[in-house]
Predict the 3D structure of the following.
Amino acid sequence: MNIYDVSKKANVSIATVSRVLNGNPNVSDKTRAKVLAVMEQLGYTPNVFARGLGLNTMRTIGIMCSDSSDLYLANAIYYLERDLRSNGYDAILCCTGYELETKQKYFDLLCSKRVDAIILAGSKFVEMKPRDNTYILDAAAKIPIMLVNGYLEGENIYSTVCDDQAAVYQAASRLIQSGHKKLLYVYTSTSYSGSNKLQGFKNALADAGLPLLPEYIRQCRKDITAAKELFFSLKKEGLEFDAVIASDDSLAAGAVKYANTAGISIPEELSIVGYNNSILSLCSDPELTSIDSKVEALCTTTVNTLMGVFSGGNVPSRTTIAADLIKRETTNF
Amino acid sequence: MNIYDVSKKANVSIATVSRVLNGNPNVSDKTRAKVLAVMEQLGYTPNVFARGLGLNTMRTIGIMCSDSSDLYLANAIYYLERDLRSNGYDAILCCTGYELETKQKYFDLLCSKRVDAIILAGSKFVEMKPRDNTYILDAAAKIPIMLVNGYLEGENIYSTVCDDQAAVYQAASRLIQSGHKKLLYVYTSTSYSGSNKLQGFKNALADAGLPLLPEYIRQCRKDITAAKELFFSLKKEGLEFDAVIASDDSLAAGAVKYANTAGISIPEELSIVGYNNSILSLCSDPELTSIDSKVEALCTTTVNTLMGVFSGGNVPSRTTIAADLIKRETTNF
DNA sequence: TTGTACGCGTTATCAC
DNA sequence: GTGATAACGCGTACAA
């Protein structure tokens, strides 16, 4: 079942069939109707491989993420796929894990699959050492590379980021304004996004004239139980804190469980702010005040930018989107 | 940059290059080394479209799910992609939403993309009315259809399911044995998986000689807050219950929040069992006893079965995997 | 062990 | 407005 069968049955050439297929206006209405009827009758579908061979594109985008079961990334993938599809593109998903070597390997793999672009979801792809990013720059020589909530400068590389720094700055400032003096910042990673959040925290303290004490900045695995234990051990250390800002809801959820267990009242004795406005912020009791990092907007913008790149438009290499502070029960502002 | 360039530079024919490419043993070591060197030097990658055109396969599997940001499905997608890739297959992701019409549309779309098989993740694809499933049966005439935690009988259709019925039966029986008399069952949907769970509940009551009261079987949106409100309204109705079995952790999490708010002690006054052993079971306080539906095993088995189908092996059209009851803090067994 | 020639199903470029 | 034909790049009989 191919274009020849259709052309034969419709008494036209394959060129005409192809024209009908691709909406070329240079076909008479009569011929078009005839061809369409035959296609319908034969249940003909064009072969995407042959088409890909000629056009050298399959209208397919590679999406890379470290772990599609991560709450944030799962949402990102959902929105990316949805928006790509509504633009007529398929998404090939590729979960790379966290090691540089496998990330590079999968990157090459996607390139060799002739995807039309690669979207890097999450801030885990840009490495600290510039030379560890050359594989991305190399790929950008061939196809557009889109970063969702990550930033890398380079030709044919486009970033859409959330203004994490401003968001954390705002949250910390709010806490300080409402009387908190001992803010604890807990974070999971030092990625692009992670270091921006931390910077926002530092700036807020500085602008409020509060001291920046290293023991009030702690790292923790992205794990509710691990976070809970961290807070208990901090308490044991004798560290006093009246507010927690977490770089991820899971850590904030751990803080809630810690406070509930230790008999510390929220938000009277301890205020807590999470990040990502995930399902965990609704599952926690009391519910988490959390920073909404606007995944959907980030993804939609990324896809729109990509479409702009395809159509040769002049698109910004970097777009920043403001976060939202969602107030719930773990803060009194 | 194609196979001709390589053959020219290596002074061999394209056939030889092709043989090297595909690991054909009929090439002398010397020639092979020469060709490989040239490939390396030119940075040559075979064109997948041309290859796909000849072989009529791109080693790509379509994964369909209703919503990739759903906790359960996000995990399923992760494992499916991982296992497919380790078998040398790519995964095209397709989130269909919940409407039959769009599901059908995306199904056709994937078929027209000439994927080698379609994996249906989650039990939301098999409809109650048999005629609403004909689109799946039709597709199965062309390519294998794999169901993850859903069941449909038909040629070239393979199901891997979790024994939900036995799992709920066991949980309910345990609750009854430990002295509970008024078990409330809350569920989200009446899919294949959903009706099995319910049947397990009914059987447990029957085998224990307890009455089956319709007011003790309630439906609720998959939403923590909605669930919490449901329990409050049931209490207001005057319904008494000493145990809750939920078809999803989100409903169980709602039950925990209800009990905490209403001052009901867990598990002394109210025992709660969730389903899926998701992150919510760890976020709840106390942590949820939950049924682990073994997503990873389900996915691995699905992919293995699919590989069996491809290699022409005799594979079972239906595989059942036992669930695990993970005991935590919301039950006293 | 190696090479030649054709088929795969499109799209695009001509000529008419 | 339509038709013939040449790419597109690879796999693979078949021949040597």
